[in-house]
Amino acid sequence: MSWVTTDQAEALWADAANLDPEVLELLLESAHTDCVAFLPDGADDTADEDVPANWKLAEVYQARSRYNAVLAGGDNQVGDDGQSITVFPLDWQVKQLLRPKKGRPTFG
Questions:
Q1: 42: phi > 0 → left, psi -120 to 50 → alpha, else beta; which?
Q2: Tens of pLDDT along 80-94?
Q3: pLDDT exceeding 90 applies to what percent of the chain?
Q4: How much is the pTM?
Q5: How far apart are CA 96 and CA 59, in angstroms?
Q6: Cα separations in angstroms, 81 against 72, 77, 84, 86, 93
Q7: What is the DSSP string of 10-29?
Q8: How far is CA 67 from CA 4, 11, 23, 39, 61, in A?
């Protein structure tokens, strides 16, 4: 079960509206599994009301990343002209949303 609905995903990710609803749901569920696995130790994957907004965004971003990976295939290229994209298993933006790095005080 994902944290976001397909309607929420479509509002945040323009291409999601063009996907088959079953495919979108599969991408969201897969992204949910990835995100839960990366949550900090002790984080609770509970009721939707308690899920932080940044976790929901991370799930949509990860679903979009998975979709782009499928489009790119094994050679990391999209389109007729072979534009290259780099596909990461869990993008740094998704990681930052799930486990934000705290700033360190600096002296200088």
A1: left
A2: 555 655 555 677 777
A3: 37
A4: 0.72
A5: 12
A6: 12, 9, 9, 16, 27
A7: HHH-GGGGGS-HHHHHHHHH
A8: 16, 16, 10, 21, 10
